[in-house]
Design a protein that fits this description.
Peripla_BP_I; Rossmann fold; alpha/beta; about 15% strand; 15 helices; 2 domains; BCAA_transport
Length: about 450
């Protein structure tokens, strides 16, 4: 299909507000994400047929993070199909291209992003995450004057944009930084106690981390604020990965049992082994793990030992009307075992960008900084209710606010979700925060009253 570098222009019949709303992509978030099948059936004539707008994604579709990378690709693919069926951006369809970042070092990430620009002329890069510094692809976006949305979940992004907002105006982190996992977890424990759902047996907390910025930043955030929530860090230990043998760490935990075990290492296979080895001789401790239990492989390994484990995410599909509708059509397209929580990230990011571009009068090709600055300005001013909750960007940092730790209004921040595996043969239950919770906290079987 022919590509054009021309600025998108409205394809609207004069005086037809309905046509503008459909062609401009300005339907409500609930319409776009909650009832697309009905909308497509009613408005099939809205399907975009203009000159395609190239968009891109660079993600790990091979190597160790491929399970997530494939879902990121699926999420953007689904979003583009839906947006095109709704009229595209002012009548022009989105045409996605993909580049593999494999092991995701900064050099590889930059090369993949630059190929999207050079080979495909993308107007925006709409990613999931890439492990690295979290401050590399932003350079490609800045040099080429295009929009970049990612879910790297790193405070490095906030600090980079804040250091030079005039250069990094086009880079946005669609979720809150990993830093918020720390105070958010401490606040979650406080809420459990205040609600009378759990009572600590002592003030000790063990924090287990792996080397790397992500796990370290979360662990340090817990450590720095623990005192203010009445906790003493009784163990702060870095493990080497892959960590299939947890005996030495568990020996320390069993020698001085804490009320809480907080593990910020995130690989699901390693965490599955911890659950198995902990279950053979558990301490009366709440067990919190980072990210890994959200992957089916964790439950496959841990099996019954997974029951009672708590984990969290600052970005994931909610278990509400919008989130469950998304899950159904995602799995209908990509299979019953498809990871919709990973796919939800670039899916929401694509809708945020496309809606802002329609409001701004169209997208801009590489080098068209003037038009893409207008798109960025609309993104900065938006409040978007999507599959993952509310996306609202922090001024001068271009990263999503988190709820309830950073803002106390659920309509103004993305929910920091806490989930618990209560039956490993089924999906986890969302236990916090209100008003999104669908399941009550269950006291783990290994903690006796």
């Amino acid at each position: 299909m022919k590509r054009s570098s021309k600025l998108t222009t409205p394809n609207v019949i004069a005086g037809s507000r309905r046509n503008f709303l459909i062609k401009g992509g300005l339907a409500t978030a609930a319409t776009l994400t909650g009832m697309p099948a009905m909308l497509f059936a009613m408005n099939n004539e809205a399907r975009a047929e203009g000159d395609p707008i190239p968009v891109g994604q660079c993600g790990p579709t091979t190597d160790f993070a491929a399970p997530d990378g494939i879902e990121f690709k699926n999420g953007l693919t689904l979003a583009c199909e839906e947006i095109n069926a709704l009229g595209g951006i002012l009548g022009r369809p989105l045409e996605p291209s993909f580049e593999d970042t494999a092991q995701m070092g900064d050099a590889t990430n930059v090369q993949a992003a630059q190929r999207l620009v050079d080979r495909h002329g993308v107007h925006a890069i709409l990613n999931g995450y890439n492990i690295g510094s979290g401050a590399a692809i932003q350079e490609v976006a800045a040099d080429n004057g295009i929009i970049y949305i990612h879910y790297d979940t790193t405070i490095g992004h906030n600090n980079l944009v804040k250091s030079n907002p005039d250069r990094y105006w086009g880079s946005f982190q669609g979720d809150p930084a990993e830093y918020w996992y720390g105070p958010g977890f401490l606040k979650f424990l406080q809420q459990l106690e205040e609600n009378g759902e759990w009572k600590r047996k002592n003030n000790k907390m063990a924090v287990i981390l792996s080397a790397g910025v992500y796990a370290s930043n979360i662990a340090n955030a817990v450590k720095e604020q623990a005192k203010s929530f009445g906790w003493d860090i009784s163990l702060f230990e870095t493990v080497s990965v892959p960590a299939s043998e947890w005996g030495p760490t568990l020996a320390k935990i069993r020698q001085d049992p804490p009320a809480v075990i907080c593990i910020t290492h995130f690989l699901p296979a390693d965490l599955g082994q911890f659950a198995l080895q902990f279950a053979s001789n558990p301490t009366p401790s709440l067990v919190y793990m980072q990210y890994g239990p959200s992957i089916p492989a964790f439950r496959d390994i841990a099996k019954q030992a997974a029951n009672g484990i708590i984990y969290a995410t600052v970005v994931g599909a909610l278990q509400d009307e919008i989130g469950t509708a998304f899950e159904k059509r995602y799995k209908a397209k990509f299979g019953p075992n498809a990871g919709h929580n990973s796919g939800a990230q670039p899916y929401d990011g694509a809708y945020v960008w496309a809606t802002a571009a329609a409001l701004a009068g169209g997208t801009g090709e590489p080098g068209n900084k003037d038009q893409n600055r207008k798109v960025a300005a609309r993104m900065s001013a938006m409040i978007w209710r999507g599959v993952t909750g509310t996306t609202r960007f922090m001024p001068l940092e271009n990263a999503a606010y988190t709820y309830p730790t950073q803002v106390n209004d659920s309509s103004l921040g993305m929910p920091h979700q806490f989930l618990q595996i209560q039956d490993y043969t089924k999906g986890p239950g969302l236990i916090a925060p209100a008003p999104y919770g669908t399941t009550k906290f269950m006291m783990p079987a290994w903690i006796k009253a």
